[in-house]
Design brief:
Length: 145
């Protein structure tokens, strides 16, 4: 009986961990594909002048450090969610609190990303900004606009 409980606990823990990863992937925006497309538009399609390139590069360097910290916060929040799921096996108070922390971390990352986008946009000429805006909308809507 003890071995059966142990095996059941291991299986449930594994399922909870996989569930936590799935929830994290399902809830997180897909940054890489949209980010790569925006980077391509920004650096290869907008004909930036040397000063714009220099200032945008500085913004990107600053944001890269901020993004790493926010990504670590989000990963930690998702790990706490997986632990809570494994401990409670239901939507109990620990799971609910962990979901709230995860949402706060995701929100902080999204807000910082938007602040970064708007900071770069302020450096663009109106014709460049219009093309940049279109690329942002496309990235956020997965090309459906």
């Amino acid at each position: 009986m003890r071995n059966l409980r142990l095996a059941l606990c291991i299986v449930l823990s594994f399922v909870a961990a996989v569930g936590g990863v799935f929830v994290g992937r399902a809830l997180l925006p897909k940054h890489d594909a949209g980010g790569a497309a925006l980077h391509d538009v920004l650096h290869h399609q907008l004909s930036l002048d040397a000063e714009q390139e220099r200032r945008i590069e500085a913004l990107e360097t600053q944001f890269a450090a901020r993004r790493r910290a926010l990504d670590l916060d989000l990963r930690a929040a998702n790990a706490r969610l997986a632990e809570a799921i494994a401990a409670e096996h239901a939507a109990g108070p620990r799971v609910t609190a962990a979901v709230d922390r995860s949402h706060m971390a995701m929100g902080a990352l999204q807000k910082a990303t938007l602040e970064h986008l708007f900071a770069m946009r302020r450096l663009l000429r109106p014709d460049q900004a219009a093309r940049f805006d279109a690329a942002v909308v496309k990235a956020l809507t997965d090309g459906r606009e």
